[in-house]
Write a structure and sequence with these properties.
The radius of gyration is 16 Å and the shape is globular. The protein is an alpha+beta fold. The strands form two sheets. It has a five-stranded antiparallel β-sheet, with helices on one face. Strands 3-4-5 form a three-stranded antiparallel β-sheet, with helices on one face. The chain contains two helices and eight strands, in the order αβαβββββββ.
Length: about 150
């Protein structure tokens, strides 16, 4: 039996821990200086909580911005709750860390991207049971911030 170190999964867990720590600090002290976040997440994740109209508008993924106005940030081991403003309508969200696809702070040119290893062409296979207790495995990589530059 061959055993190997699962660096991808270890890196994935470490990067989610970093996001947890950053948001926990923001929960306690607020956003310092020009820091702000673009967070893209999978709206189909079973633990993601968002209004029905937002889920209909963003059936697969959604990017939220935490910058000038946010309220009720509460971080736990699995994710975070926050109320954000959508067209002058405050909406509560719960975003599991496992649902995050990108986390970017353009003020300091920092970004993380979680790549899924699932095939985009997944048909209706009956044997699509992921192994292990976690969601399907993803690789991690640093994101280029050119996309968000003005």
């Amino acid at each position: 039996m061959t055993r190997s170190i699962d660096y991808g999964n270890l890196m994935h867990r470490a990067m989610r821990g970093l996001i947890h720590d950053v948001l926990s600090d923001i929960e306690q002290t607020g956003l310092p200086g020009e820091h702000h976040f673009f967070i893209t997440f999978d709206t189909r994740h079973p633990m993601a909580e968002l209004a029905d109209w937002l889920r209909e508008r963003y059936p697969e993924e959604m990017t939220v911005v935490m910058q000038h106005w946010y309220d009720g940030l509460a971080v736990d081991d699995d994710g975070f709750a926050v109320t954000l403003n959508f067209g002058d309508t405050p909406e509560p969200l719960y975003i599991p860390f496992d649902a995050i696809r990108t986390f970017v702070d353009p003020s300091v040119e920092f970004g993380l991207r979680f790549e899924t290893q699932e095939s985009e062409d997944d048909d209706d296979d009956d044997d699509e049971t992921p192994e292990g207790p976690d969601e399907p495995q993803r690789d991690a990589e640093v994101v280029s911030l050119d996309k968000w530059r003005k």
